[in-house]
User: Which sequence fits this backbone?
């Protein structure tokens, strides 16, 4: 790589300092979700509001705009630079974000940060009490603020599309509905095929927390965890977060009566962390630059879902792990027993605990509801009833209370409207990438059966992780698989899974 030019270096220094402030904000978020006492919520809201205001000021200032402009001018003159295309892409993305930041009122930025911190705390309390009315005012405020954010951005997109952009760049609602249309038809049909073989979602056995924790630790160690750069904690809702270039953290949770929940959540969040650890690390892209960031949240979710579903829920994995589970007290007699426990194939109320088949229906419900809240006039007060109605129609189950229903997810308490589709898009991407991986190095399950997942990670490190934001999600899929993103591979995988599980 050619030596950094003066304007490029100055811009890089600014971005690095901005990223440091952002990582402080992320550290406070980590603490809020793991160890902070509930009474600290008000002060935490003030802290996050101040940081959000400072970040917005840095990202929208005339001085920063001048740095970006100078770097662009320099780029225009460096027509022979070997990394010109990458630098140009970085600048394109920086200019796009600069325009967005300059469109936002600082007062709105501060209000959103405060509302998210308060909303998270009120969601926790409402969820604990199973009382949506305690959370409804916070949700109403977050919807109002996000709608105002979309108005201020004034992009040629609908409100929901605008809010989805940070998660899925260039995604349109029309394209989303096009990709999801086959799923809306096929998933209920596949679910109906399983109705003749009802199975309980809740295990008839449980494991002590210490045993679950030991199994999770063993899993991470077997997948190459470096404890010097990783950390695991507990939170009400599992998540992964990166606090620095050598600081990767995940959380999990233990669910009573669901002895595999913690294990699968750990596998899922570790997939996220592996992706973060594999993002580009060149000096001009390192950490603070757009090309060093995740392609999109759908690609992010494709990586977590790969490790959770294609590896940890596979038959071959059960063959490797049933004995360790049995040694910890699980009443599984063989690999088949563990495999079936890992794949309940029965509709339930909870998205995080859902099997691969019904999971997509959970996402379709949430996507439709948040669009209705933002754009179609659905009243916040009517959300629980509408949630329950749709669950009854699509999944044949009805929440007994709000905690089981519309309070189960953290996303809306943080104003993350537009995030949910990334999970289902991630399923589609993961399936299509798996086809390409199988064609290249053989089926993932074959490697798992040999007890060696390193070829799987190596393939992802070559083809997916280093892309960063050089491409958007659909372009990455096209590049790696040779065809546009669609539901074909995912639905075929589900059909094969259903057939195998229903076989006697």
Assistant:
């Amino acid at each position: 790589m050619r030596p950094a030019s003066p304007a490029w270096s100055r811009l890089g220094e600014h971005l690095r300092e901005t990223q440091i402030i952002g990582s402080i904000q992320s550290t406070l978020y980590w603490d809020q979700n793991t160890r902070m006492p509930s009474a600290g919520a008000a002060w935490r809201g003030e802290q996050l509001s101040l940081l959000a205001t400072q970040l917005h000021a840095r990202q929208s200032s005339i001085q920063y705009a001048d740095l970006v402009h100078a770097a662009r001018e320099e780029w225009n003159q460096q027509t022979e630079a070997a990394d010109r295309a990458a630098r140009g892409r970085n600048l394109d993305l920086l200019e796009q974000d600069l325009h967005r930041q300059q469109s936002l009122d600082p007062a709105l930025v501060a209000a959103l940060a405060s509302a998210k911190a308060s909303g998270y705390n009120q969601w926790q309390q409402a969820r604990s009490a199973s009382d949506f009315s305690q959370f409804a005012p916070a949700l109403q405020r977050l919807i109002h603020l996000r709608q105002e954010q979309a108005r201020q951005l004034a992009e040629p997109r609908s409100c929901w599309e605008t809010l989805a952009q940070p998660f899925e760049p260039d995604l349109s609602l029309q394209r989303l509905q096009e990709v999801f249309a086959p799923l809306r038809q096929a998933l209920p049909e596949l679910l109906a095929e399983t109705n003749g073989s009802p199975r309980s979602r809740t295990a008839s056995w449980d494991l002590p927390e210490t045993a679950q924790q030991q199994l999770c630790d063993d899993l991470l160690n077997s997948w190459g965890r470096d404890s010097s750069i990783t950390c695991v904690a507990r939170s009400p809702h599992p998540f992964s977060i990166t606090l620095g270039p050598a600081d990767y953290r995940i959380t999990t949770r233990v669910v009573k009566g669901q002895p595999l929940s913690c294990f699968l959540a750990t596998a899922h969040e570790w997939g996220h962390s592996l992706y973060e650890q594999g993002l580009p690390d060149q000096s001009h892209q390192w950490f603070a630059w757009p090309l060093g960031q995740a392609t999109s949240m759908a690609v992010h979710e494709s990586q977590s879902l790969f490790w959770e579903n294609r590896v940890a829920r596979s038959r071959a994995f059960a063959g490797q792990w049933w004995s360790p589970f049995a040694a910890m007290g699980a009443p599984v007699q063989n690999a088949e027993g563990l495999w079936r426990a890992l794949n309940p194939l029965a509709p339930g109320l909870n998205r995080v605990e859902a099997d691969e088949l019904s999971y997509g229906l959970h996402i379709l419900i949430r996507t439709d509801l948040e669009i209705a809240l933002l754009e179609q006039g659905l009243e916040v007060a009517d959300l629980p009833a509408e949630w329950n109605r749709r669950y009854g129609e699509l999944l044949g189950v009805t929440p007994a209370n709000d905690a089981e229903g519309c309070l189960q997810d953290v996303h809306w308490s943080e104003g993350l409207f537009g995030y949910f589709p990334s999970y289902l898009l991630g399923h589609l991407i993961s399936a299509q990438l798996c086809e390409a991986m199988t064609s290249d190095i053989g089926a993932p399950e074959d490697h798992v059966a040999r007890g060696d997942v390193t070829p799987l990670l190596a393939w992802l490190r070559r083809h997916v992780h280093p892309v960063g934001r050089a491409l958007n999600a659909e372009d990455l899929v096209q590049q790696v698989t040779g065809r546009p993103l669609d539901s074909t591979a995912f639905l075929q995988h589900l059909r094969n899974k259903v057939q195998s599980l229903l076989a006697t």
In short: Strands lie at 230-234, 240-244, 247-252. The longest helix spans residues 6-34. The domain at 173-502 is CATH 1.10.1370.30 (Neurolysin; domain 3). The two ends are 59 Å apart (CA to CA).
